[in-house]
Amino acid sequence: MHLTNLHTFITVSRTGGFHSAAERLNITQAAVSARIKTLEQHLGQHLLERGRSGATLSHAGQQLLPHAENIVRSWSHATSMLGVPVSRTVLIRIGAQYSMWAQFVLDWSAWIMESMPEIKLELDFDFNTDMLKSVQNGKLDIAITHTITSTQGLHTIPLTGETMVLVARRPARLNDTNMPVYVRLDWGPQINDQVTRVEPRLPESKLSIGSGMLGLRYILEHDACGYVPLRAAGQLLQQKRLCRVKRAPGFKTTGHIVYNEDSPNHLFLERAVEGFLEVQAEQNKIET
After folding, report:
1. Which of 96-100, 119-123, 137-141, 219-223: highest mean pLDDT?
2. Mean pLDDT, the chain, integer
3. Bridge partner residues of 167 (DSSP)
4. Is 66 in the same domain as 96?
5. Is 60 exceeded by the pLDDT of residue 84?
6. Are 180 and 207 in contact (CB under 8 A)?
7. Residue 150 class from Cβ within 10 Å (0-12 exposed, 13-18 middle, 19+ buried)?
8. Residue 152 and residue 158: Cα distance in Å, rounded?
9. Which terminus in the chain has less CB density within 10 A, N or C?
10. How far is 153 from 136, CA to CA, in rounded Å?
């Protein structure tokens, strides 16, 4: 029984459909169907039920799934320990919020491309995507998220907190009569909630901008102020193109990097996450 067929079966079970599995495996839907058919013929069991909403596991498929995952995981461990070269391209899909993480993820991607030549990488910066749910349902392999609710089956690593600071184009002090106009910027619901807690101490905002990075550009071009991540503003502050507003409260955000530890490609995901932490440590050295 070929491991590729087991891997394909696992992928269909996680993505919920032959089409989604084909996209994730970077093969045709016909190839997915052929592999599943070969597996079913070998076992003499019907493993998947197709329907309008996708594919679901039959009773036999439910029984096979944990054993298939163990087999693929054990083989992956064994080949890694023996130093067996990988003969296939491994697709890793990474998701993050554009405004908060775009530049960092691009730097991390460069590390992956250099250190893991067997990887094919896809980046998702869709602001409306629920990153945690996308990892749980198999649409993403790794996500950077500020939302942690149910993490069943997921491996979660807390990240160094991001500092949010109030910045303006010119020197300013909180509640001075000539203070720049306060603009509310959208960095996602979790960070927005934290901003809301300090807003009673700020002037009333009459302008909201739905993209944090567009809001930062607005501040650079107008007499305005707003909360931005210190990482995003660091170089601009050094160049004196931005100033921190004096007496304005700052606060730390909490982030996590999340991946499915039961993924057949979990060893590659773990290595990619190690790279994330290496890149983050290097950037923290530069910023300090």
Report:
1. 219-223
2. 83
3. 226, 244
4. no
5. no
6. no
7. exposed
8. 16
9. C
10. 8
